[in-house]
């Protein structure tokens, strides 16, 4: 985790510091949105990138998924399943709730299509997300 790594970095000061106090102060500053002391350089660069939301290639992945809420999304799962549906929500683990879902499954007999009203996807099984996309029709 980046924050933990930054918390253990040593400062360039001549006076000895209390490492535990420094770590807890940095965590507190991070939790408060960086108020107080200046942010570490890595977090400063992330903040600069966050401000450039006009270019989709410069969005953080969670911001891109957040922009897809309420729109169609194509989810390619690990294994032989693909789903197309309307994204209703997600969490930090990328577990997703989709509505009006069409599930495409590749079987030995061919492609099986299943319609579902709603589904909760485990984020561990998601391989690729395609906003606004859909699989090629046969």
UniProtKB/TrEMBL annotation:
Transmembrane parts of this sequence: none
Protein's UniProt keywords contain Nucleotidyltransferase: no
Residue span, Sm domain: 60-135
GO cellular component: Lsm1-7-Pat1 complex; spliceosomal complex; U4/U6 x U5 tri-snRNP complex; U6 snRNP
Keywords carried by this UniProt record: Acetylation, mRNA processing, mRNA splicing, Nucleus, Ribonucleoprotein, RNA-binding, Spliceosome
Main location: nucleus
Alphabetical list of InterPro entries matching this protein: LSm5 (IPR033871), LSM_dom_sf (IPR010920), Sm (IPR047575), Sm_dom_euk/arc (IPR001163)
Subcellular location: Nucleus
SMART domains the record matches: Sm (SM00651)
GO biological process: mRNA splicing, via spliceosome
Domain of life of the organism encoding this protein: Eukaryota
Keyword Nucleotide-binding: no
GO molecular function term, any single one: RNA binding
Family: Belongs to the snRNP Sm proteins family.
Functional note: Plays a role in U6 snRNP assembly and function. Binds to the 3' end of U6 snRNA.
Protein's name in the database: U6 snRNA-associated Sm-like protein LSm5
UniProt organism field: Citrus clementina (Clementine)
């Amino acid at each position: 985790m980046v924050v933990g790594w930054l918390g253990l970095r040593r400062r360039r000061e001549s006076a000895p510091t209390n490492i535990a106090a420094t770590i807890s102060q940095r965590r507190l500053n991070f939790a408060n949105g960086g108020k107080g002391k200046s942010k570490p350089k890595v977090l400063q660069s992330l903040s600069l990138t966050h401000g450039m939301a006009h270019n989709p290639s410069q969005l953080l992945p969670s911001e891109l998924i957040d922009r897809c809420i309420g729109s169609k999304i194509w989810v390619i799962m690990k294994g032989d399943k693909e789903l197309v549906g309307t994204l209703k929500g997600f969490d930090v683990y990328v577990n997703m709730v989709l509505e009006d879902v069409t599930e495409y499954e590749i079987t030995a007999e061919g492609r099986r299509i299943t319609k579902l009203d709603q589904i909760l996807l485990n984020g561990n099984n998601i391989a690729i997300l395609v906003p606004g996309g859909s699989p090629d029709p046969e």
